[in-house]
Design a protein that fits this description.
With about 325 residues, the protein is α/β, with parallel strands linked by helices. The chain has a single domain, classed as CofD-like domains (Rossmann fold), CATH 3.40.50. The protein contains 13 helices and twelve strands. Helix 1 packs across helix 13. It is globular, with a radius of gyration of 19 Å.
Length: about 325
């Protein structure tokens, strides 16, 4: 009999579509123990309303991450639980089934974590999703001009000049890393910082107190996935690959071991789609990322999103 391979213990850190894509890419990999630590700083849309009115953790990013770990078709689950927003339903208008399940389950069961556990069981998730913190806190940033923005929704869609760059990010009030999230990070072999919005998805998840210490206590290799584009009207952040890396490393106790960036060719057709979505192309300068393994791989779908199959192949190479 051949020797059984040890499982890779992988923790994905972030929120939004990037975390979903990485979880879907790795969900069916053999010999992988998969979990995610997800931001709970969301303040917009259905999640923001439920948070403000009922005092619960914003459920949206955790909901999508759990659905991404299910063996059932993700697009179907997303349509049933997340994408379809209610209308002509009174106070339920604008909400979705998944957010209401997590919120009302927490109200009935007396604990959000019980409701999150029930969702894992309902969709037979192949892995675990942990909130970064159990405390309600707002994401805050200070801009180069000195202006302070409070609230993830205001940072994600600033009304001012995008050239007024973010200089510092924190949670207000302070929040402490959730114990189970800390344990997952400390026991990880790999920590993957997911692609997506640098501040509102990735850095927001790194801000709870104890996160730096947990990563420092872990022997895990850190992999940072950088997308192809940024939102022109979105958060006021970097536009160059090396700047993305150096900025995220300000919130880490050590440098990333590997960088995986999306090297998809910017064809005329793709540029047209980027323009429609008001996306700018990240300038790639891998030569400025010494002492890190840098992988440029195309993991983009035809519509400009993430191609899960391509991302699976790219991550296999980086995880070897």
């Amino acid at each position: 009999m051949g020797q059984r391979r040890e499982r890779k213990n992988i923790v994905v850190i972030g929120g939004g579509n990037g975390t979903v894509a990485v979880l879907r890419a790795l969900r069916n990999e053999q010999d992988v123990l998969l979990s995610a630590v997800v931001s709970v700083a969301d303040a917009g849309g259905s999640s923001g309303i439920l948070r403000r009115e009922l005092g619960v953790l914003p459920p949206g990013d955790m909901l999508r991450a759990v659905l991404a770990l299910s063996p059932y078709p993700f697009d179907l689950l997303k349509r049933i639980f997340y994408s379809n927003r209610f209308s002509d339903a009174g106070k339920l208008d604008g909400h979705n089934l998944g957010n209401l399940f997590l919120t009302l389950g927490a109200e009935y069961g007396g604990d959000f974590l019980f409701s999150l556990s029930a969702l894992h069981q309902a969709v037979e998730a192949k892995g675990r999703v942990f909130p970064a913190t159990l405390e309600l806190a707002d994401f805050a940033v200070r801009l180069q001009s000195g202006v302070v923005l409070l609230g993830e929704d205001k940072i994600d869609r600033p009304t001012g000049d995008r050239s007024d760059r973010i200089m510092k990010a924190w949670l207000e009030p302070r929040a402490v890393l959730y114990d189970e999230a800390r344990r997952a990070i400390e026991e990880a072999d790999y920590i993957i910082l997911s692609p997506g919005s640098l501040y509102t998805s990735v850095i927001a998840t790194l801000l709870p107190e104890g996160m730096k210490e947990a990563i420092a206590n872990s022997c895990a290799k850190i992999i940072f996935c950088v997308p192809r584009c940024y939102e022109i009207e979105g958060e006021a952040g970097p536009r160059v690959l090396s700047e993305f890396v150096l900025e995220v490393e300000r919130y880490l106790p050590r440098s990333a071991n590997s960088i995986l960036y999306n090297s998809a060719s910017v064809t005329e057709e793709r540029m047209g789609k980027y323009n429609e979505k008001k996306w700018g192309v990240i300038e790639t300068d891998p030569q400025n990322l010494s002492e890190r393994l840098v992988f440029g791989r195309d993991y983009e779908s035809v519509d400009g999103g993430y191609d899960v199959a391509k991302l699976t192949e790219a991550l296999r190479e980086v995880l070897d």
